[in-house]
Amino acid sequence: MDDNIDELLPRGVALSWGLGKQPKRGPKRELSIDQIVEVAVTIADKEGLTAVSMNKVATSLGFTPMSLYRYIPSKDDLLILMQDAVCDIPNPIIKGDTDWRGNLRKFFQAFVGIYLDHPWFDEIPISGVPISPNNLKVTDWALGGIQQLPLNDHERISFILLISNYARGCGMIKRDMAQAIQSGTSLGALSGQDYSSALKQLVSPERFPNLQPIIASGVYTEENNQNNNVGDDFDFGLERILDGIGHYLHLKEKDKV
């Protein structure tokens, strides 16, 4: 391995891999990067990402901010480490399981869970492909779940990206809905049922020719769930994505004939 490999990576990413020189002499009692990151994640989970600062993390640990900078050079580096830390989740895919649809469902659910457990996760901007260890680990076991499929490397990683992007969107919506409920929003307001009567009067077929029949039927505001044979909207969307992957695999097999 290159002796200067840490210089080839962003500082925060290098730290996530355990690379780079650590201070030989620390504060009065020893600190570690893991301790700092754990406290920062706890603050973000309870108070939001904006509450995280080097000063607040240091105070929570009983040290000065300068003590933290000896381990993590900047807040941006801390955010990278936080994002990677919460991706350290158990692998739900059983090794050797050939049920690729079930494996991708498990990957999707696990990824959505990160957004629900850590609502701040998506507030850290995407600055490139994941290159920190826990991020890559999640991608690795997701790829393992479709390893048996007749796909090339580009196809495999593209399908994992497709599922992870869908999980990101669903996770953000589910998180926002959970937060709305916690803040006192009623289920009727969240689904739109509280406003169904008003919408039926306001949404005319002249102005909204395609939407009006759906609102009139009550589907838009979930009035008629008893007639819903689709199930959960998020799961329905996932199954259609999996159908698309299945169709793609079928076409590949036909091309071989």
Automatic annotation (TrEMBL):
Residues 30-90 form the HTH tetR-type domain. Signal peptide: none annotated. Keywords: DNA-binding, Transcription, Transcription regulation. Residues 53-72 bind DNA. It holds the Pfam family TetR_C_1. This is TetR family transcriptional regulator.
